[in-house]
Amino acid sequence: MKILVAVKRVIDYNVKVRVKADGSDVDLANVKMALNPFCEIAVEEAVRLKEQGKASEIVVVSIGQKTCEEQLRTALALGADRAIRVEVDSTPDALTIARLLAKVAEEDQPGLVLLGKQSIDSDNNQTGQMLAALMKRPQATFASEVQIDGDTLTVTREVDGGLQTLTLSLPAVVTTDLRLNEPRYASLPNIMKAKKKPLEVKSAADLGVTLTNKIKLISVAPPAERSAGIKVGSVAELVDKLRNEAKVIA
Amino acid sequence: MSILVLAEHDNQQLKPVTLNVLAAAQQLGGDITLLVAGHQCASVVEQAAKISGVKQVLVADAPTYAHHLAENVSDLLVDLAEPFTHILAASTTTGKNILPRAAALLGVNPLTDVSGVESSHRFKRAIYAGNAIATVEIDEPKVVMTVRGTAFDPVAAEGGSAEITSVSAVFENADIRFSHEALAESDRPELTAASIVVSGGRGLGNGENFELLYQVADKLGAAVGASRAAVDAGYVPNDMQVGQTGKMVAPELYIAVGISGAIQHLAGMKDSKVIVAINKDEEAPIFQVADYGLVADLFEAVPELQNSL
User: For position B86, which CATH number holds?
Assistant: First the structure.
């Protein structure tokens, strides 16, 4: 079985993002970029499934400009077998991304598609669900455990009330939550080997998808700042402040 | 405008977040229809019909909707979508699972976690873990979006008398089946709806020490949350996580105990009205957002706090 993993290049999670002075967007100039952490978990899960003998090939795909090949190489170093970059010169909307991924899936016919549950830039949490809809296949989002047994996939999901377990028929789409696994570090020999692994570039036109952007970014503002309050010297003072100043406890 | 809101419930109780989503719907203006999709959910329908400002309650009661599987509920939403200009749900794991799927089936882009309504097609939402607030305009014939409950004050749960209409369409996707679930049981209020939240971080040291927080919480009638670090360390289950990828909370009072204050955690709680931080590290970033900070050993301060309440 083939596994397709969709990954995204995003700002490194350790970087504190700043809004541009003109409020047009966030400032990503000279900012460290990385593989989205949830995508890294998705790649790791695919590699583990291959190590268990459940998968024969891992194809990793990203949609973006040439710079995102860096993240595709990272995924190849972690254990993916080959990569596809879909060339786009602007940022298309989420539905276009899902359509492009659905076309890639149609060509490659994976038994399982893995994605991160959300990217830490737009914080959307929607691509996997949309892709599953377009592929007309079942989905399991927020996965914290994935098991494959023949054509059956069992996924435990982190839902608001606790944990929910679903049984799906493959092919299926799974999006990863934080506790699915702890991604490995790529070893130096694997980083070197990744440079020689195949990376194919396709255009949206090759895939027969028209790029659209139906969501216009009007402006970006920093959040309302909370100013630091005061330090209290004791529990008694804290309780007094909460009762008599903030009036939030009885 | 005509708005369809997907009710969040567990077949017994309507989840309070539904009232916040309805508030966002009221800001849009227009007739509001509430869809209750579930199984043996008559008590939810009864609660739904009483909510102020709801014109109609649609009821889809079938075994296939019992667990709110995205495949079945999104097919139902698509079936019902025609007369509506907007389709809304809460930005919970249920809403976020279902709505993007329904949007793709309808051929439109969804919006996730909307925190402000500017007009029928212009909205605000947090990006980059809440470090930036984007205003976006969506050019779609139908607006399908999930709403951040804490960003809207709830509508009144009583005072309405909506017309109740049954929906006969039953969708069942043969490729997915509910197996089982392990839901947390607690007598404390629900994290996202509580007016006071006491949260613990890695500073607690282990799961047993959360007992200290439970005791304070029970005196305050509070819910108990946790940082990602505490959940990752296995101290407490995932449903307690507050933060960018966990739950968003905005209570009247948030007490952070032994939490350093990573931006991912702050993203989930910084809209709280009053924030208290108890941490022995006076450099901890949590103090930068706290209204009241106490630099102290939590193992001394928390029992003392409990005795003073």
Answer: 3.40.50.620
